[in-house]
C-alpha cells in the first residue's frame, strides 16, 4: 500500500512546528514533509528529536515561488496539504504590509494551483479568528463560522484574502478543502515576540513587560496541542468544503495573562509597563467551537493547566529560547543540513 504523504507548510514555525512533531510521532505510517522558507521566525532546532526519523522530511522553499512549488508537487505526489505558512505578527504587518500580502495571499494561491494541478485529496487551510474582526465586551457574543469577515489589520486582511481564495478554489475547481480558524495559541516553542513567551522570558530575567494600552483587550487562549488534535480531526474527518472554528473556552484579558505569569514565577507586578496601544487593536476575540465539537473534538487543557505547563516548559527549556533571542538558531539549518 502506498504511504500517505502529508505536506505541512510553515512547519518550522510555532503552530506548524508542533503539528509536524504531532504528526511524525502519531502517524509513523505517513511521510510528513515540512516545507518552510526559514524566515526570522523559522526555527528547526525544535525538530532535533524527530529529524532522524524515517517519516520526517524537510524542504526549504518559498510558497510564493511557483516554479519550486510545482516541481516539489510533481516530484512527491502529495496526498494532503496542511497549510500553516504565513507571516503572522500583527505589529510587523502594520509596519510592512507588503510581505504579508506576498506570503499569505500569493503564496496560498501558488499552493492552491499546485494542489489543483496534482489532484490532492484534501487541502486544509489554517487561518485565524482575527479575520472576523473584533467583538465587544458582551460575554454572550462569540464568533461562529457564519460571522462575516471584517479584518482590521493588514495581517488579518491578508489571512481573510487567503481564506476566500481557498473557498473560491473549492467552489470553482471542486478542490477538496477545509478551513480552520483558531483563537490565540500558546504552548511550547512559541516565538518569543508573542505575549506569553515574551512575558515569561522578561519576567525570568527581571525585565519590564510591555502591555498595550490598559491591558483590557480580551483573547480566547487555545493550547497548541489541542489545536494540533483539532487539525488532525479536520484533516481526516472534516466535511469537504466546511469551515471549523477552534477555540479554547479560555477568555482572559492581556493584563490577566501577564499577572498570572508574574504570580506563578513569584515576581513583582512592578515589572508591568503600560505602553502606547497598538494601532487598530481589536477589543475581544471569542470563538464558539460547537461545530468542531460535534465532529468529536474536545480541548484537554484549561487555561490554568495549560499556562502552568507552558511556564514550566519555558523554565525547563531556557536554552531553546535564549538561542532564539540571541539569533543563534538561525545558523542551525546550515550546520545541520548543508555542512553536515
Structural commentary:
With 340 residues, the chain is of the alpha/beta class. 42% of the residues lie in helices and 17% in strands. The chain has a 7-stranded parallel beta sheet, with helices on both faces. Strand 1, helix 1 and strand 2 form a beta-alpha-beta unit. The longest helix has 21 residues, at 97-117. The two termini are 33 Å apart.
Number of strands: 12
- Read across the widest sheet, the strand sequence of neighbours is 3-2-1-4-5-6-10
What is the third-level CATH name, the topology of the domain at 5-190 and 221-249 and 283-303?
Rossmann fold
SSE sequence, one letter per element: EHEEHEHHEHEEHEEHEEHEHHHH
Structural class category: alpha/beta
Number of helices: 12
Q: Classify the helix fraction into a percent range.
A: 40-55%
β-strand percent reads 15-25%
Tell me the name of the CATH homologous superfamily of the domain at 5-190 and 221-249 and 283-303.
NAD(P)-binding Rossmann-like Domain
CATH level 1 class label of the domain at 5-190 and 221-249 and 283-303: Alpha Beta
CATH architectural designation of the domain at 5-190 and 221-249 and 283-303: 3-Layer(aba) Sandwich
Keywords: Lyase, NAD
Family: Belongs to the NAD(P)-dependent epimerase/dehydratase family. dTDP-glucose dehydratase subfamily.
EC number: 4.2.1.46
Protein name: dTDP-glucose 4,6-dehydratase
Amino acid at each position: 500500500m502506498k504511504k500517505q504523504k502529508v505536506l505541512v507548510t510553515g512547519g518550522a514555525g510555532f503552530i506548524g512546528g508542533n503539528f509536524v512533531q504531532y504528526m511524525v510521532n502519531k502517524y509513523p505510517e505517513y511521510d510528513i514533509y515540512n516545507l518552510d522558507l526559514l524566515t526570522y521566525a523559522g526555527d528547526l532546532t525544535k525538530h532535533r528529536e524527530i529529524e532522524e526519523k524515517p517519516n520526517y522530511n524537510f524542504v526549504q522553499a518559498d510558497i510564493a515561488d511557483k516554479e519550486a512549488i510545482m516541481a516539489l508537487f510533481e516530484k512527491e505526489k502529495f496526498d494532503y496539504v496542511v497549510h500553516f505558512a504565513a507571516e503572522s505578527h500583527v505589529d510587523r504587518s502594520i509596519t510592512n504590509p507588503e510581505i504579508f500580502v506576498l506570503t499569505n495571499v500569493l503564496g496560498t494561491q501558488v499552493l492552491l494551483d499546485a494542489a489543483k494541478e496534482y489532484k490532492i485529496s484534501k487541502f486544509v487551510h489554517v487561518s485565524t479568528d482575527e479575520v472576523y474582526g473584533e467583538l465587544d465586551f458582551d460575554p454572550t457574543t462569540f464568533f461562529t463560522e457564519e460571522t462575516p469577515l471584517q479584518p482590521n489589520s493588514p495581517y488579518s486582511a491578508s489571512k481573510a484574502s487567503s481564506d476566500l481564495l481557498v473557498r473560491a478554489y473549492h467552489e470553482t475547481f471542486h478542490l477538496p478543502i477545509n478551513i480552520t480558524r483558531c483563537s490565540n495559541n500558546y504552548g511550547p516553542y512559541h516565538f518569543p515576540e508573542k505575549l506569553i513567551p515574551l512575558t515569561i522570558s522578561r519576567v525570568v530575567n527581571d525585565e519590564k513587560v510591555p502591555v498595550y494600552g490598559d491591558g483590557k483587550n480580551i483573547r480566547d487562549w487555545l493550547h497548541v496541542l489541542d489545536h494540533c488534535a483539532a487539525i488532525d480531526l479536520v484533516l481526516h474527518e472534516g466535511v469537504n468544503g466546511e469551515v471549523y472554528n477552534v477555540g479554547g473556552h479560555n477568555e482572559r484579558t492581556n493584563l490577566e495573562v501577564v499577572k498570572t505569569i508574574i504570580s506563578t514565577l513569584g515576581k513583582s507586578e512592578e515589572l508591568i509597563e503600560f505602553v502606547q496601544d497598538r494601532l487598530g487593536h481589536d477589543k475581544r476575540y471569542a470563538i464558539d467551537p460547537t461545530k468542531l465539537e460535534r465532529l468529536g473534538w474536545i480541548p484537554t487543557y484549561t487555561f490554568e493547566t495549560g499556562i502552568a505547563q507552558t511556564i514550566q516548559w519555558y523554565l525547563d527549556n531556557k536554552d531553546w529560547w535564549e538561542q532564539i533571542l540571541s539569533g543563534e538558531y538561525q545558523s542551525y539549518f546550515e550546520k545541520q543540513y548543508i555542512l553536515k
